[in-house]
Amino acid sequence: MLGRWVVKHFVEHGYEVLNVDTRHPEEELCPTLIVDLQDLGQTYGALAGADAVVHMAAIPRAGMVPPEVTFRNNVMATYNVLEAAAGLGIKKAVIASSESSYGICFAVHPFGPQYVPMDEEHPQLPQDSYGLSKVVNELTADMFHRRSGIQVVSLRLGNVIPPEWYERFPSWIHNPEERERILWSYIDTRDAAEACRLAIETDGLGSVALNLGSNETSMAIPSRELMAARYPEVTDFRAPLEGYEALLNSEKAMKLLGWEPKYKWREQLGK
């Protein structure tokens, strides 16, 4: 869902792009190479000659396949991409982490945030293999940076929304129970794609994890009212929250990347 928007964004900004996937896309914007990223040799072959890599490939959520399959795929694919990138002398990489790494989203035993807005310092406490795979991938990124100096930006993506999904928003915007596990976050695919480009173009980041979400919630209910309705036990508010402010804090990405979310659901729906 996100990868095609990343490809489109880089092509539109004049980059020479190779799309690496398990199948050919419906819209061929650039050459595509069919690769199994769980095979290190294939991964080396795919990345040979590249200046940078944006790695969005993964099983995208818990519950799609057995948990051990999710973990093995997501961890080994990311390890292989970074192993090959480091071995080939590639200097910059972006990988897809997730807000699910905080553990709230797919928790078997539900719990709430320790504080809001939730920034990158919030503990990561996953109870599922998907969230755990993202934590491991961030640690893998740290290791490769220490070993080779490769810059790796791990984007802790909020709920990814392509443009055609905005029509779904009216079905949930008045119900606090909807989307509570993701703290009512969202990020437009076009905004996420721009963040990927900026993360490649920015120097001196080392290995860093950045939350990436809109600066507003996906709801028509003020943020404090959402918290009172679904997480009344949370008393640590680290921002005034006087309106519809995001509860997934992306200020670090804005500061380090010079990034700003452009696409808002009310504007997209004309409301």
UniProtKB/TrEMBL annotation:
Q: Which InterPro entries match?
A: Epimerase_deHydtase, NAD(P)-bd_dom_sf
Q: Which residues form the NAD-dependent epimerase/dehydratase domain?
A: 1-204
Lineage: superkingdom: Bacteria
Protein name per UniProt = NAD(P)-dependent oxidoreductase
What is the originating organism of this protein? Paenibacillus nanensis
